[in-house]
Amino acid sequence: MHPQLRAWAQLVRVPNTLTSSADVLAGFMLATGVWWRFANVWPSLVVACLASICLYWAGMVLNDVNDYVEDTSQRRNGPLVRGLIAVSTARIVGWGLLFTGVVLAGVSAFLLPESGESTPYWIVGVTAAILAILIVAYDSSIKATAVGPLLMGLCRGFNMLLGVSLGACLNWSSQLDWPSIGLATAGHVGFVTGITLAARREGLLNQSSFRLGLSWGVSVLGVASIAASSIWSTDRTLRLDPNFWFPAFVAMLAMPWLRRSIVSIRSPGIGTLVPAIKQAILSIIFLDAAIALQFGGYLPGVLVCGLAIPTFVLSRIFRVT
Q1: How confident is the model at residue 52 (pLDDT cuts 50, 70, 90)?
Q2: How far apart, in Å, are the Cα atoms of 79 and each of 110, 292, 316?
Q3: Are 106 and 126 spatial neighbours (Cβ–Cβ below 8 Å)?
């Protein structure tokens, strides 16, 4: 691979890209339920996923631009620090991706098939705009404060709400499944907030077991919220029993990450923390797949789960964090 192309792939954390698309697809299934009853939704879904990817890449690029001085002083091995990409160029590309993501989100709404109602398609663009604002807020001095990890979690939550808002445009006259949407979204916020807390001092040789325990505990609460997302659901077409089988399924999917997180607490250090973070990021796709299966059907669940394959392959080539 050309060194410049490889540098950009590393800057945007290309292995994590499809986790953003998985959020959008899961959110769409939460809002629409039986997805195949809506004809010609794929163009809109694809564009919404592209919007999410642009916003995710923007966040990664602007994050490294914001951290450039600190990363240079700590001699971190990133494309900007090594001079492979100019900081000014990265800043322009980051803002360009942010703007493109918001525009594509608006376009995805107008690509939806006609619903025959006075549907407020603007809610998709507004959701994307709020997500963009959260991204910019995180990629600033606020990141270093106590609010920083929660901001990152909210970015992930609004990324899922981007899919929810798109599905809501099709289901506007129906009663949306707000208990499930709220719990699933809150679960993503909690899970990613915990990951961010755990990764805050990733570069330190000496890790605190107590801090990691609290961080991963927040992620566990997030998983529990996702597991409970269908218990009070108003959807009568759920695929798994919401009181036992769906929570058990979610717990099973989270188990590989949970095992690594426990190891990182018992034997704190870079060698145990980095694998736990990588597994946590990969687990986002599996948690989204569980949501897609439960609310959208087995085929959507399998399709979202399939995103883990390229994610895993790319993580063997590029750094995830």
Answers
A1: very high
A2: 37, 36, 18
A3: no
CA of 53: how far to CAs of 98, 100, 104, 268, in Å? 10, 10, 10, 33
pLDDT for 62-88, tens place per residue? 999 999 988 888 777 889 999 999 999
| Residues 257-277: tens digit of each pLDDT | 999 999 999 998 888 999 999
Burial of 69 by CB count in 10 Å (0-12 exposed, 13-18 middle, 19+ buried)?
exposed
Which of 138, 161, 136, 133 lies closest to 149 in space, CA to CA?
Answer: 138
Sign of CA dihedral 28, 30, 31, 35: positive
**What are the residues whose beta carbons fall under 8 Å from the beta carbon of 271, sequence distance 6 or more?**
none
List Cβ neighbours of 76 (8 Å cut-off, separation of 6 or more).
Answer: 203
Average pLDDT, rounded, for the chain:
92
* Residue 256 phi, psi (nearest 5): -60, -40
**CA atoms of 197 and 137, how far apart (whole Å):** 17
Alpha-carbon span 91 to 78, nearest angstrom: 15
- The span from the CA of 72 to the CA of 79, in Å, is 11
What integer pLDDT is reported at residue 87 of this predicted model? Answer: 96
Structure tokens at 61: 């690029």
- Average of per-residue pLDDT across 22-42: 83
What per-residue confidence (pLDDT) applies to 175? Answer: 79
